[in-house]
Automatic annotation (TrEMBL), chain B:
Signal peptide: none
One record GO biological process: amino acid transport
Protein name, per record: Branched-chain amino acid ABC transporter permease
InterPro entries: ABC_transp_permease (IPR001851), BCAA_transport_permease (IPR052157)
Primary residence: membrane
Family: Belongs to the binding-protein-dependent transport system permease family. LivHM subfamily.
Transmembrane segment boundaries: 6-28, 61-80, 92-114, 142-164, 185-206, 226-253, 265-283
Gene Ontology CC annotations of this record: plasma membrane
TrEMBL record, chain C:
UniProt subcellular location: Cell inner membrane
Protein name: Branched-chain amino acid ABC transporter permease
Gene Ontology molecular function terms on file: branched-chain amino acid transmembrane transporter activity
Organism, scientific name: Marinobacter profundi
Record-linked InterPro entries: ABC_transp_permease (IPR001851), LivM-like (IPR043428)
Gene Ontology CC annotations of this record: plasma membrane
Keyword Membrane: yes
Segments passing through the bilayer: 38-57, 64-83, 89-107, 114-130, 173-193, 223-241, 253-278, 298-319
Membrane topology, as annotated: Multi-pass membrane protein
CDD domains according to UniProt: TM_PBP1_LivM_like
Amino acid sequence: MLKTMLRRAGKFAAIAAAGLVMSAQAAEPIKIGSFLSVTGPASFLGDPELKTLEMYVEKINESGGVLGRPLELIHYDDVGNASSARNFASRLIRSDRVDIIVGGSTTGATMAAVPLVEQAKIPFISLAGAVVITTPVKEWVFKTPQSDRMAAERILSDMKERGITKIGLISGTDGFGASGRTQTLEVAKELGVEILADVTYSGSDTDMTAQLTNIRNTQGVEGVLNFGFGQGPAIVTRNYAQLGIKLPFYQSHGVASDGFLDLAGASAEGLRLPASPLLVPDSLPEDDPQKEVVQTYKAEYEARWNAKVSTFGAYAYDGLMLAVKAIEAAGSTEPEAVRKALENIQGHVGVTGEFNMSPEDHNGLKADSFRILEVQNGAWKLIN
Amino acid sequence: MFSEFLQYLFTGITIGATYALIALGFTLIYNASHVINFAQGEFLMIGGMATVSLMAMGVPMLLAIILAVVLAGVLGILLQRFAIAPAKQADVVTLIIITIGASIFIRGLAQLVWGKEYHVMPNFSSDEPIRIFGAVLNSQSLWVLGIGAILVVGLVLFFTRTLIGKAILATSMNKEAARLVGIRTQLVLMLAFMVSALLGSVAGVVVAPITFTSYDIGIMLGLKGFVAAAIGGLGSGVGAVVGGLLLGVVEAMAAGYISSDYKDAVAFSMILVVLFFMPRGLFGAKVVERV
Amino acid sequence: MVNRFMQSRLRDLVFLAIILFALPAFLSNPFHYDLATQMAIIAATVVGLNLLVGFAGQISLGHAGFFGLGAYFSGIMTGSYGWSSIPALLVGAVLVGIIAWIVGRPILRLKGHYLSMATLAVGFIIAIIINNETWLTGGPDGMPVPSLDIFGWELSPFGSYSLFGMELDGNQAWYLFAALVLLVAVWFAQNLIDSPIGRALRSVHGSEVAARVVGVNTASYKSLVFVISAIYASLMGGLYAHFQGFITPAVAAFDFSIVLITMVVLGGMGSTMGVILGAVVLKLLPQVLADFQELETVMFGLILMLTMIFMPKGLLPTIQMAVSKRMKKKAGGQA
């Protein structure tokens, strides 16, 4: 009885919330479902993603919605736990009956929800980056971030251009870091780069001097790559500077944000990483197709939330815009039509890159959508 | 070779000092009331976060620190008064769950008030690392060790020289007897929590420049502090300090020499080894079980 | 005769069965069944944990480790090595039982907080190993798990089945299965509690010294209940893995251990039905609070604190006491 009472209370609360969201229009809303890691160890990802989704759903509704119907965002917080993510995906699909899902901040959360999405035959645009999400291609699953493999390719290529062929690798033991490490090891073999030292740290660690000392004392290391996200890489960067290691230092796209510069401070000077042009919108040449989209997103986000913009929020932005574009192209929310429309999107200029989807490529980005940025005088500088 | 060892040692002692301070907080509350306060880590978090947010509002650093520490102290009193005291005859496990609930609650509030981002705090003194025999030491580490030592000495003096300190000890030894000699045990308990909170928050402030601070750093640090307290022997101040330092050093050595993947596993295995040979921790009191 | 029935241990089991089979009348969509199935599996897990914590009085803060081991053993054996589910579950249970026995002997000599510390350490070590051995476990990003197959017959949340002429979808079929599993788990636990073993355990909880004085081999009984509760967790972990279809190292993590212990304490330590209620409430709470978004963490912590402060014996025992008080008043009034 307790259970039913609680469930009714939950239903009432949900209905009340939904009622507030829906505008006075009589047209039936298009339900966009989302499960994100808004709190917990991956809040670095989910928080800006949610803010972006909320903001742009509002904006789109203000200018008339999609196909004359308002958008309704139904979102849940999975606290970085894949099991919760799966449960909320189940709730979105079976209870809330959403038309499309834009969510899944982490790879674990995304992969846990994939069987449900495939069975329910609802389009799912993931905001997580591991290569396994879209390779092999799954009919109903798409993603907006570049894969970690592409990041590794971009970084290692840049290293080779600078003459670095033997490196030390330090990565986080979380999903992003571990997956990045695996991809780096594979890509390194292909490109002929040797990984002489391979150390890790966990997400809650507060000092990585020991691991870095290990790398420093390995003979022949010419450069160092740190694959991780959150505050870990900032601590690594500071320790790196403190130890006085002068070798070229690379970070992954996991820290492509101004927030990282705040944390790492002066010790970030000179490091390079692959990122979308979101951090250097004004450095883009005038004829760069991404310039306008990027500048607009950055300005709007920062004005609305009074917080620095982040590439993770951009994943959500691109995801939402792709969803809207597909629904408009399909002329309805019928799942198969939307899915086909998603697959056929070509030349969509997003913040993360230019998307060219196809039935074999549900990501639509190539490694060169990453730009190489370097930190100079405490600010991001576009190198490549 | 030697500089490598020295580097690991420095790292280990710095983080170990943090663990030691948190462990002292656990020990204090355990001594006074036999409660394991799983919210101890949150006092650390409050120290760091409150300082950072006050400084962002323009408050000068020293004042911000003092205010943050006072805030934590108040929170400690509130915790005891409203969460622990009402649950008078509760089971040990129930009390643990209450403190866990409290830590979740405090973390939730911190999240609402201060947001989820990580924040940086400037070093107290210079940003230049100190070089010793080829190893580097963050100047902030010296602050951690220094302030830690002062706090430990302060605590010892507090418990042996002041009346209030002795009252806390008396209450922990025998609550009824303490009441009989006129000690206001309820007040004493609140005081114990307050001192423990002050301890935790000072540790949080002093360590924040090294570790960054955010609403959830209390979780893992609090846990490691509990581990350190158990290794050293619950209820022993010396044990808490030794346990903390030992844990920190073992972690750093494991990360450097063995495998960074498994350094936490090594640390936890160490606990099992210690407890296997010394079931009450290194300095734990031999308790006579009354039947 | 009705009175004797009411007093017997059969009463609880029958009431539980009635609730479980009547529940579908209130569930309206596959998500509800999904949630209910998970509640049943986790409830069975905490019934096992309750034997250790509630009856024998030993605190374990690492129980999720055994759950995780069972989940991953099932996942790896059925996924990468093509084993059938039932053998994987059973062999997993045996292996976890052996691990629990080896680990338990030295650990259970410890008392109080030192014991909880040691169990915490064991849980963490298991979780770290699962997280790091990516070649075997898929690492922190997790691994998919094939559906449960009972000697060739596949039980999947995505299938459709028919029973006694009724059409059931996969979620409903799984719910029935989980409900049966829960009933068996409870029956076994109750038998254990009412047996000489159960009495020995309660004597250990009451006073270990006294029990030893009377000749009870406390060490081996504590070991036994530790192993039994670990086997419960392992079996349920395996079922959970098959049902969810995907597992990550989070199923062995400290956070989950805390959730399990909280379910036991919240529902009522030592009360088999109580811990089931605890499991239901704690599984339901995040769903209900989900609509509160930002306030979710704060409210969760607050509810936890207040419940434990005002109902320290747990939900069910407190409710039972309140109900029996009122019944006594009524009886007293009549007398």
